[in-house]
Amino acid sequence: MAFVELGMSEKEFYATPPRHTFMKQMHGRRKIERMWEQTRFLGAMQHNTAMGKKRNIRPQQLIKLSFDQRGQIEWTKEEAEDLIKKWGVN
Predict the structure, then answer these.
(1) What is the sign, positive or negative, of the torsion defined by CA atoms of 54, 55, 58, 59?
(2) What whole-number distance in Å separates Cα of residue 33 and Cα of residue 64?
(3) pLDDT at 50 > cutoff 80
(4) What is the largest CA-CA distance in the chain?
(5) Do residues 79 and 71 make contact, with C-beta atoms less than 8 angstroms apart?
(6) Which end of the chain has fewer CB atoms surrounding its CB within 10 Å, N or C?
(7) Distance of CA 33 to the CA centre of its chain
(8) 41-47-53-55 Cα dihedral, nearest 10 degrees
(9) DSSP-assigned letter for residue 53
C-alpha cells in the first residue's frame, strides 16, 4: 500500500521505520480530505447561491469526512499505548 500511496521504492519502504511510514500515510490521507473539504465547500456555496435562502445547505450535508465529528478520537488511549509498545517508540 505504501508503494502506491507514497510512491516509495521497495528499498525505501524497508529502510523506513513503520511509524514514519504510517505518519506519511496519515499525512497523505489528511491532504486528500482537505481537498475534499474545499470541493464540498464550493459545491455548497454554488448550491446556496443558485437556490436562494429557502434551500441553504451546509458543506457537511454534501459529503461527510472523517474529521466532521467533533470530539471523535481516532484511537483510544489504550490503543495508542499498545501501538507505541508494539513499535518500540520511546
Answers:
(1) negative
(2) 10
(3) yes
(4) 57
(5) no
(6) C
(7) 5
(8) -100
(9) G
Grid coordinates of 44: 455548497
C-alpha cell at 9: 521504492
For residue 53, give the amino acid letter.
K
3-state secondary structure 68-88: HCCCCCCCCHHHHHHHHHHHC
Helix (H) / strand (E) element for 9: namely none
59 by Cβ neighbours in 10 Å (0-12 / 13-18 / 19+) ranks as buried
In the block, residue with C-alpha cell 518500540: 88
Read off the C-alpha cell for 23: 505518519
For residue range 12-39, list pLDDT tens digits in order: 888 888 888 888 888 888 888 889 889 9
Is 60 exceeded by the pLDDT of residue 72? no
| pLDDT of res. 90 | 54
